[in-house]
Amino acid sequence: MMVHNQISRVTERMIERSRASREVYLSRLDTQIQEKPNRSALGCGNLAHGFAACGPDDKAALSGDILPNLGIITAYNDMLSAHQPYKNYPDLIKQTAREAGGVAQIAAGVPAMCDGVTQGFPGMELSLFSRDLIAMSASIGLTHNMFDGVLFLGICDKIVPGLVIAALTFGHLPAIFVPAGPMPTGLPNQEKAKIRQLYAEGKIGREELLKGESQSYHAPGTCTFYGTANTNQMLMEFMGLHLPGSSFINPGTELRDALTREATRRALSITALGDEFTPVGKMIDERSFVNAIIGLHATGGSTNLTLHLIAMARAGGIHLTLEDIADLSEVIPLLARVYPNGMADVNHFHAAGGLPFLIGELLDNGLLHEDVNTIVGEGLSRYCFEPKLGANGEAIWEKAAEKPGNEKILARVDAPFAKSGGLKILSGNLGQAVSKVSAVEVKRHVVEAPAIVFHDQHEIVDAFQAGELDRDFIAVLRFQGPKANGMPELHKMVPPLGVLQDKGFKVALVTDGRMSGASGKIPSAIHVTPEAAEGGNIGKIESGDIIRIDVNAGTLELLVDANVIAGRTAANPDLSGNEFGLGRELFAAFRANVSGADMGASVI
Fold it and tell me: CB under 8 Å to 235, separation ≥6 — which residues?
C-alpha cells in the first residue's frame, strides 16, 4: 500500500533538509568501511594488546584476517532492575559467537542511571546529560578498532538514545540492539498511582507507600508501565534495530536466551565478513526515523523521545525538527492503551498482540514506510512476526494475529482510541513546548487559568500541603531547562496536582523541565524553549497572569500584551545550588554548552 501523503511530505522535506549533512556523513562512512577485519589495520603490538586477555582459541582467531569480532557495549549494573539481566549476556554471546565461527569481546561498559531512584533529588540533574556521556563512553570502547560489528546491551531512559548516537557515530559497523525485557506484572499501575495520591493527601504513611512501590517494582526487568524505557524498546523495533517481536519477552526465560543467541548469529552474518553486510549508518535513514516517530504517536509514548530522536537523528546526518513530529501526529491515530494512558501494562500489551500486530496494522493502512532496511533484511513487514520457542530451543517466528487479543489495549486504525497521536507540539508567545495528551481527558485539552510561579518542584508540594492551591491555576515551574540545571524530570508534584484536579479545579503545568513517559492525567506544556535560563518568556511570567494551553489548536499563550511582556525584567534566581554536589560540579561544561530542547538538548 502507498504510504500516506502527509508521511511522504514530511519524509521528503527531511531528506531535502538533510541532503548536505547526510552526504557528508555517508561519505565519511565509506572511507571507514573495510571488507576485511578492522583489526587488520592495527600494528602487531596494538593487536597483541587487543587480545592479550583472550583464551588461546580466541587469540588464534583474532590473529588472522578471516573471522569477525563482535564488540559488546554493555550497560549492565545490578542496581538497575532493567539492566541486571544483562549480567550473563556476554558469556552467552561469546559462546554463541564461537559456535558460529566468530569472536566477541566486551568493548566497554557505559553508565546506566535510574531516574526512578533520582527523581526529586540532585542526582536527577545529571540524568539527561548521561545520554551524551553514554554515547562518548561507548565511542571510547569502539575506538580501539578491534571490531567488525557491535551488540548494544541497554534499555532505559537515556541509555538507548546514547547508544544509538554511538552506533551512528560508528555507522560503518553493523549494530544490533539486544533487549532484556520487562519484569513480570506486579501491583497494577493504577493501584500504584492511587497509593501515591493517598500518600500525597496524607491518608497513608511512608510504610504503606513503600510497600506499594515495592510490589510494583519487584523483579529484574524494565518497569511495566509505558515510560521512556519501554518506549525505547518500541522504537528499536520500528527502526529495525531489534530482532522482530523481541522487545517485551520477560528476562530469565528460554525464549529470551534464544533471542540473544539469534541476535549474536545475526550480528556475525551482517558484518563485512558475512553474507549480508549491513552498516548501521547506511541502514538507518530518514524513513527509519519517520517510522520511529509514527510508533511514538501510535502508542502514546514518552515525551522524552522528542528530545532524543532529534539528537539521535543528527548523529546520522539527519535534521529532524519538532514540526516534523507535530505534522506526523496529525495523521497517526492512537492505537495502544498502556499505563499511564490505559489500565494495561506492557506485558498485557505484548500478550494482546503487541508490536507485531501494531506494525502490521499501520503497514496495512499506509501509515509506515515498509521499504526500509533492517537488521534482518529489507522490508519492515518482517516485523509483523512474533517469536516463539522452537522444538530445539531455538527462536522461530510466526505471523502475528490479524486481530488484537484485547480491544481495550490495542485498536484497529478504523476504530482508534484517538484520531491523532498521543503527543502534541505547542507554540505561541512562550515559545515551543511538548504536551502528552494520551492520558488527559478531552475536556481538559484546553485550560485557561491564572499562573502561579515556582522555581522548584518542592515549592509546589509545600504549597499544596499548606492548603494554598485549592483553586484554578496553571503551575509555572521554570529554571528547570538544560542550561539551568540539566533538565530533570519533575514528578514529585504530580500526585498533589492530581488531587487538586480530582477536587474539580482546573489545573495544568507549564515548565521548561521534563515529565517523561510517566506523564499522566494533568494537562501540561513541557520542554518549553527558549528556557528561562536562556532568556525565554517563561522567565517573564508573573503570578496572576492568564495562560492558555490549547492542545487542540496546538497553542501555548501568555495572555498579556506583547509590549507589557517586552517591558518586563526576566526573573534571575540564584542557581548556584545546582552547580555542586553528587557530581554536578563535573558537568559545568555540559550546562554551559547544551543546546535547547528543540535541538535535542545535546552537547554533542
Answer: 160, 292, 295, 296, 301, 305, 309
